[in-house]
Amino acid sequence: MVGDHGGNRDDDGAAADRVSAVPAPVRSVIHACRYPVMRLLTWNIQCGKGCDGVTDLARIVAVARQTLDADVFCFQEVSANFSRFGDGADQSAQLAALLPGYSAIFRPAIETVDGDGNLHRFGNMTLSRLPVLQIANHLLPWPGAAKVRSMRRHALEVTVQASFGAIRIVNTHLEFHSTDQREAQVARLLDLQEEASVNPRQAGSRYDEPYGSQTVAASSLMCGDFNFDVSDPQHALIDRSSRPGLTYRDAWTASRADRPRAPTCGIYDRAQWVDGPDCRDFIFVTEDLISQVRRIDVNEATDASDHQPVAIELAE
User: Fold this and answer.
1) H/E element holding 100?
2) For residues 294 and 314, is the Cβ–Cβ distance under 8 A?
3) Residue 265 near residue 277, CB atoms below 8 Å
């Protein structure tokens, strides 16, 4: 999948996909209808900082697009106005500008105001060229916040319309320093999936009031930096969940059990990852989507972040 730009998807398509006069929402609907494949890339971009110490969001986007001609990009560790990251710039605005044609959704886990009234934000960002139906930002549990170095974490949920139906894309990044916090966060993510799949709903055709305009899709893809490895019991909490409704399964083991899992961090940055390469980034899909997983790969060649991009392709 690395280097796969989807063949001639943009070359042989309808003119509506290529003509700027066609409104962006219409182009996204046409795109979703025309292509039975959904391609997604997830990546902890470390605020654009590569293993060479250089912060370069243009490089991040170039590598991401070279890795996969994705319909949805899910980035973790996006900073807005924190001076230690990206020279204090609003990276959400920069990423949106670098990916025209995508609906750009940035939601912070951390949103703080300094003494001068300046807003500082940090969180996850999802960019989609598929139609966006619903957006929700879920703050995750933060038990014992004062007792351990940690930060608020969240799950950015963006429901998109793929050719095979509505799907909730959950973009998350769990706590690194605290096992207890991470376990509570996993439990909340499973709660959210259970709630959605047991009680799905489709929005009405009118959006003039909130009650009838909400979409809750049972099918879901959850991705990001989970800060546990494959052998951790917390991985099993998700991958072997027996909760009511549609449960998550690890897309790699569900579709590529015969192939060794590729590392997703620590390949090039040995200062932060002293134990060497590890796998902390995953894509989980609900059971109804397992048969639609066509490919899942890790780009192990790039050092544009301390993590590696993970790419997946689903098809009808």
Assistant:
1) none
2) yes
3) yes
